[in-house]
Specification:
Order of helices and strands: HEHEHEHEHEHEHEEHHHEEEH
Protein name: Malate dehydrogenase
Number of strands: 11
Structural class: alpha/beta
EC number: 1.1.1.37
Bound molecules: nicotinamide-adenine-dinucleotide, (2S)-2-hydroxybutanedioic acid
Largest sheet: 6 strands, parallel
Pfam family, one: Ldh_1_N
Number of helices: 11
Main location: mitochondrion
Strand content: 15-25%
Keywords: Mitochondrion, NAD, Oxidoreductase, Transit peptide, Tricarboxylic acid cycle
């Protein structure tokens, strides 16, 4: 409770960018799966974030070492490592943001859905603990298949009576990061000024980059747009194949996860106009969850933004992704209610 009252007191001092000369609010961030391929660099990046005052690193093994290492960095947050299920409650208590990169990654030849059997159970257990120890935290779900793990968490929270659709996010930021990088390369523009919304979900054709809305504008040929779309949809597979059995994207994902968590913290701190794409409960389409731009605020999702005008190619992409996304969502819901 004291964390939250300190947050309210400090909020008026936050500058637009979320960095201020005055003290910023106290914020606890918990990383679940902190000793993993994503978890370690993500913990490092969260340790570098001045908006974090308390960094809680949880995993079933390996967190004492990661926490000791990261804790020596001379930045604001206090770092504590928690190891094993019996320490999960302490890891979560008082958390404002919980980031979840726990679970197994793909190997070549696998789809994200092939991870369902192992990761669904992990996510269900972690969501159950969140509903008990930090029911008001913003949850950033990285564990795959995101199209199913987010609905699983939602169902767990509903059963516990703690569900708030404004506080649950599937992290699709890596799709946006990739779309920006690939677009900048083809459009020959500086990547740091590029914006590309990516909507739908986070697997194969459910990832739908909207290059017709990309800025700065570049009149790219249709075949280039098609190739950029396919590369964005298969960006994860490109990394899985290059790593040849040693896992999937970890470093670019840690970057993307840190970016999204930072946006959540800025929203919580009252920074205006924080907009990111995320897979959230949605009425943008007939599907109950959908990734689109969302405005982040003091309670999480302030507003789910619409799709905007789509090209014919994007409209077709939207129609073709709905079947797969619907069944992945239903698979998650059914699992949680088993
Ligand atoms: P990894 O195997 O390197 O690390 C996973 C970590 O999770 C391990 O340290 C493991 O001990 C931990 N873990 C397992 N069960 C746990 C539990 N019950 N509680 C807490 N921690 C637990 O895998 P990784 O490369 O870090 O990937 C993690 C997940 O993130 C995978 O499911 C992967 O598919 C997904 N991922 C998602 C995106 C995205 O864009 N959303 C991008 C990349 C990877
Ligand atoms: C990604 O997009 O890199 C992740 O979802 C990991 C994967 O399995 O591709």
């Amino acid at each position: 409770r004291s964390l939250h009252s300190a947050a309210t007191r400090g909020a008026s001092h936050i500058s637009r960018r979320g960095y201020a000369s005055e003290p910023v609010p106290e914020r606890k961030v918990a990383v679940l799966g902190a000793a993993g391929g994503i978890g370690q660099p993500l913990s490092l990046l969260m340790k570098l974030n001045p908006l974090v005052s308390s960094l809680s690193l949880y995993d079933i093994a390996g967190t004492p070492g990661v926490a000791a290492d990261v804790s020596h960095i001379n930045t604001r947050s206090k770092v504590v490592g928690y190891q094993g299920e019996e320490e999960l409650g302490k890891a979560l208590e008082g958390a404002d943001v919980v980031i979840i990169p726990a679970g197994v990654p793909r190997k070549p030849g696998m789809t994200r859905d092939d991870l369902f059997n192992i990761n669904a159970g992990i996510v269900k257990a972690l969501a159950t603990a969140i509903s008990k120890y930090c029911p008001h935290a913003l949850v950033n779900m990285i564990s795959n298949p995101v199209n199913s793990t987010v609905p699983i968490a939602a169902e767990v929270f509903k059963k516990a009576g703690t569900y708030d659709e404004k506080r649950l996010f599937g992290v699709t930021t890596l799709d946006v990061v990739r779309a920006k990088t690939f677009y900048a390369g083809k459009a020959n523009v500086p990547v740091d000024g590029v914006h590309v919304p990516v909507v739908g979900g986070h697997a194969g054709i459910t990832i739908l980059p909207l290059f017709s809305q990309a800025t700065p504008k570049a009149n790219l040929d249709d075949d280039i747009i098609k190739a950029l779309t396919k590369r964005t949809q298969e960006g994860g597979t490109e990394v899985v194949e290059a790593k040849a059995g040693k896992g999937s994207a970890t470093l670019s994902m840690a970057y993307a996860g840190a970016l999204f968590a930072d946006a959540c913290l800025k929203g919580l701190n009252g920074v205006p106009d924080v907009v990111e794409c995320s897979f959230v409960q949605s009425t943008v389409t007939e599907l109950p969850f959908f990734a689109s731009k969302v405005r982040l605020g003091k309670n999480g999702v302030e507003e789910v933004l619409g799709l905007g005008p789509l090209s014919d190619f994007e409209q077709q992409g939207l129609e073709s992704l709905k079947g797969e996304l619907k069944s992945s969502i239903e698979k998650g819901i059914n699992f949680a209610n088993k």
